[in-house]
Write a structure and sequence with these properties.
The chain has about 160 residues and is mainly α. It contains seven helices and two strands. It has a two-stranded parallel sheet. Helix 1 (about 10-20) packs parallel to helix 2 (about 40-50), helix 3 crosses helix 4 (about 85-90) and helix 5 (about 95-110) packs across helix 6 (about 120-140).
Length: about 160
C-alpha cells in the first residue's frame, strides 16, 4: 500500500497523484472525505484506473450541480433522501473501517512524531507503520490480548 509523509503545506489533492501512481493493483472503488471533492480528483482517478471506477466523495452541503454527472447524482440523492441515507446506500460508511485502521496506527505512534527533522520523521513513520502492522497481526492471533501504548513502551524497554 503506498504511503507518503508530507509537510502541512501539501494538501490531499496534491499528494494523491503520486500515491496512486505507486499502486500496482486495480482499484474499483475510491472512498474519501469532502477534501477530495473536485473535478481534478475525478480526472486523476479516472486517468489512472479508468472511467469505471466508483468514486464516493460526499459533496459539501452547499454543493451545486455542475458538469460531473456522477457528482450531480450524489447531490440529487442527498437532497431527496438525506446525507445519512446516501452514505448507507452507496456504502460510503465503509470509510469508517479505514478511519479505525488509522486510529490504531495513531495509537502506536502517539499524537505526534518525536523527530524534528523531516527525513527522520519519515523514518519514524515507516517504523511505526511496521509496528502497527505487527500489532494488527498479533491481535488476530491473540484476540484477548490488547496492546496499549504503555504496553508497547514496556516491551521496548525490556
Amino acid at each position: 500500500m503506498p504511503r507518503k509523509l508530507t509537510t502541512e503545506h501539501v494538501g490531499d489533492e496534491a499528494a494523491l497523484p503520486d500515491l496512486i501512481a505507486e499502486m500496482d493493483a486495480d482499484v474499483s472503488r475510491f472512498l474519501a472525505d469532502g477534501a477530495y471533492d473536485g473535478q481534478g480528483m475525478v480526472d486523476c482517478l479516472e486517468d489512472r484506473f479508468g472511467s469505471g471506477i466508483e468514486i464516493l466523495i460526499p459533496p459539501p452541503k452547499t454543493a451545486v450541480r455542475g458538469e460531473n454527472a456522477r457528482r450531480n447524482r450524489h447531490i440529487a440523492t442527498i437532497a431527496v433522501h438525506g446525507r445519512m441515507n446516501w452514505q448507507t446506500e452507496t456504502g460510503y460508511n465503509q470509510r469508517s473501517q479505514v478511519e479505525a485502521q488509522i486510529g490504531r496506527w495513531k495509537r502506536v505512534i502517539g499524537d505526534c512524531l518525536q523527530a524534528r527533522d523531516f527525513d527522520r520523521q519519515i523514518a519514524e513513520a515507516k517504523i511505526a507503520s511496521k509496528g502497527a502492522c505487527c500489532m494488527d497481526r498479533s491481535a488476530e492471533v491473540l484476540p484477548a490480548f490488547s496492546l496499549t501504548r504503555a504496553t508497547v513502551d514496556a516491551i521496548q524497554i525490556q
